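thread: overnight batch results

M.L. [08:02]
morning all. the overnight job finished for the chain we discussed friday. pasting input first so we're all looking at the same thing
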Amino acid sequence: MNAGNEKRKYGQWSEIYIQAAIRVYRGGNIGFNEVCRQYRIPKPTFRRHLKSLNVHANKERKILGRSCTFSEEMETELEQHILKLESIFFGITITEVRKIAFEFAERNGLKHNFNTTNKMAGKKCFYAFMRRHPQISLRQSESTSIARCKDFNRANVDKFFDILEKLVDENALTAPKIFNVDESGFSTVQKRCQKVLAKKGKSQVGVLSSGERGVNTTFVCCTSAAGQYVAPMLIFKRKRMVPGLAEGAPPGCIVQISDTVKPTNEDKVLLILDGHTTHSRNLAAIELARENGIILLQLPGHTTHRLQALDVAIFKPLQVYYDQAVEKWLREHSGQPVTQF
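M.L. [08:03]
and the structure it wrote out:
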């Protein structure tokens, strides 16, 4: 193998030998070259230690490479700053962290090797920082509206649970009598395609879909705190009802209610739902619920992304399995698109 292609080896010397060699050399009995030969220390390394140019020369452990620009206290401060920004929905990107590191070093008058043209730290510096602080990870962010940020606060959440506790105590409600309802839309075109195996290096991999734009069907789900499910309701985007739409639907779908709980004014149930106008502003629905012993409790505005259990735990995996079923059906029925039927 060509000597020029050999990987350079670092750290072949011992820190103990370094200290012993320095004492011998300063004793004046042996010359510089002989000390390096006897103690097997590279001459440049020994020279740096003699001139006290190596900032780690007096440390007990051997540290290779450039020294870190920031102290441990400074890095901890930077770490807390990053986590604080994320907690208030202002998470920063890799590029922004690198720029902050440059500004931080400049403001504190630290000697650094950062890029002064782009005014940011290097990528190697960033990844080294991430290795030293494993509690920080790179995550895909989700857009959250300003209204949600403002309304999802301790006061609103505490108020909701205070009302919930009061209703449960006043009406002696148990888990089978506390229900949660929500709806979600499902399209004939899958939202997320699964990862598939393809030839290495191929940049674009296609998966069949029923069309560019699909037709949405609304799925209404209702479940109790005890894990009992009411038969779901399917709302199709059509003007006329066709019997074939219900083919293959879950038993009792659309018209049947739960066989376990039959609410009355003497034996009431609690129904938790979001504040959509079709729920909270529909007088006919409110009156119907009152007549049948159903207590309606609305979730605080703009908090369903955290408090709506069906949104958080049910609909996302359901959507994933639905998309998988659509892809499987398209593979098994070549050339046939998915429709509402």
